[in-house]
Amino acid sequence: xxxxxxxxxxxxxxxxxxxxxxxxxxxxxxxNKLHRSSTLRDTPAVRGMIEKVKHLVRVESA
Length: 62
Fold this sequence. Notes:
alpha+beta
């Protein structure tokens, strides 16, 4: 059985005064408040979402 890779992201920046797309991307990552973290499957789509809001999140494990 293959083990799936995961990535944990933590929100470190506020979405206030940010573009609506950036706010929606945070919600898509499962983040909606500061210092919350979310563990997701490490896929190209998730990596792309992290890249869009890299100034608002911190990748804790790869």
